[in-house]
Amino acid sequence: MTENKDARKGLIVVCMAAFLVPFTGSSLTLALPQISEAFSMKAVTLTWMSTAYLISTAVFQIPFARVADLIGRKKIFISGLFVYSFCSCLSGFAPDEKVLITLRFLSGIGSAMIFGTGIAIITSLFPAESRGKALGVNTAVVYASLAAGPFLGGMLTHYLGWQSIFFTSAGIGVIVSILSVFILKKEWIESRGEKFDIAGSILYGVGLASVIYGFSSLPHTRGIIFLIAGICTFIVFILFEKQQAAPVFNVRLFSGNRVFTLSSIAALINYSATAAIAFMLSLYLQYVRGLDASQAGLILIVQACVQSAFSLIAGGLTTRYSSVKLATTGMSIIVVVLSGLVFLNESTPYWMLIGLLVMLGIGFGIFSSPNTNVIMGSVDRKYYTQASATTGTMRLAGQAFSMGIAGMAISFYVGDNKIIPELHSGFMQSMQMTFIIFVLLCLVGVYASTARIKQS
Questions:
Q1: Is residue 10 a contact partner of residue 125, using CB atoms and an 8 Å limit?
Q2: Range of 223's domain?
Q3: What's the whole-number mean pLDDT along residues 337-347?
């Protein structure tokens, strides 16, 4: 009974942390026009508000997951909360866009420490038969924060300025970190006494950062160079890790576990094809349709509210139905919705957009927690932290790729300019192109998700 009580308390703390980071990101989506105005930032530069954060979170997640196995998940989890809160507070005082983007990069390091351990802690707290429901609750909280972000972020931005978003996030982070110290009872040290793979961590970080930066900089020549360099570095990383007794990441999780591999690929593709939707729709609603931040937030909140509800439902369904089939169904729904978003124009009825967002929320909710359950259930306890970090890395790398696709489309149709009325038609073309690419990606994701049904 005590263990169940401690598990529930631990779930509450991890869920509070899971609420924090998405809340900041989704809130900032509504604040982008105001931040652009404050620092005279161009449309392409705005994408780096998200991309810089995503790069650092993705790059540091695997190394910190390994550190957590060596010295304790609780230590890394709480340290991440402090780092994130401190950098968020400083972001509110940023004097220009360079400092703000740098602080977002540093915030990503704290986020990597949180994400790299959070799901692993939940997986360790709950037995297999109730794990799906616990992960569903955590996913529902993430989506609830995504729902609260646009609404509260829009209100904070409208009445108190964009800086208030960072100060609010910092305050929440401090409270959660203090609670974590007292509520989390264990450290969960799985690899005590083993060495840390410094060389492997450097290769991994350089490779992933180069790939994400290169993809985000396409179609420029430097983007192609960084992308090729990153892929080559990753090949060297894989070969190097296979020779290590204590690798920073056990690459054999991919080569010897097809369910884990296909589920991770499905997650990567899903986030690559969806993460920039809110970014594009926020700019569409505020620039093209003329809504203010709070009004746009009220529309965008619909998707996340539905996601949160259906994540809880999907988490419960994993005890009766195949998680793989549920995730595949969710991905298929997302394909249909993205196809509808391709046809948005300057006069699309708001009720039609809201209907598409409702369906998108259903698809996301049915996909996410079952897919995570498949990933975590396909590995041994020793690899929970690495599997958790892999899940987070796939999500964040996918988000970075998604923003890269959006940035590339904006660069092609709008150029390195601010979005002014004369360029609205160009922006609409960039949004349409972005959603077409997302549809094609999601179709590949459905295939990957279907292929693992036989394997599972």
A1: yes
A2: 197-247
A3: 89
